[in-house]
Write a structure and sequence with these properties.
Blueprint: H1 2-12, H2 18-29, H3 33-37, H4 46-60, H5 68-73, H6 79-95, H7 97-112, H8 123-128
Helix pairs in contact: 2-4, 2-7, 4-6, 6-7
């Protein structure tokens, strides 16, 4: 119930931030937040990191004084790796319709604040597994 109250509060006061973008990717790819933001290069995590790089770069590169270095640091990259994975993801979107749909879905979900709404099945990831999102539930 405590988690539900937090989610309800958040949805009314949604501010699109880089951390919220990362949360969106975590939910869609069902990887842990800690894994996504670590410096790991495991094959199972790389698609999520690539999607996070794309979302961060495309949504925040010219907003709120975010630098490529500060955005890359959020997912364990420097500015050149963030740019590389953004371009790689963009090129993959041109050749792979499934990947393009996935990235468009994630972007739309982020921009709408979709995953914050309790009727969205993705919310189950947050409420059932709050340990994957320690930054959302510091009181746990």
């Amino acid at each position: 119930m405590k988690n539900q109250i937090f989610i309800e509060y958040q949805k009314e006061n949604v501010v699109l931030t880089p951390k919220l973008a990362i949360d969106t990717v975590v939910i869609h790819f069902q990887v842990s937040f800690d894994c996504l933001v670590s410096k790991t290069r495991k094959e199972s995590i790389m698609p999520a990191k690539k999607a996070a790089a794309y979302l961060l770069y495309s949504q925040f590169k010219k907003k709120d004084n975010h630098t490529l270095a500060s955005l890359g640091q959020l997912i364990g990259y420097d500015h050149t790796m963030l740019l590389h994975h953004y371009r790689s993801c963009k090129n993959l979107m041109k050749t792979d319709p499934e990947w393009k749909l996935k990235i468009e879905t994630i972007t739309e979900s982020f921009l709408c604040g979709d995953f914050l709404y309790p009727n969205n099945p993705k919310i189950a990831t947050i409420t059932k597994f709050p340990h994957l999102f320690p930054h959302l539930f510091p009181e746990l």
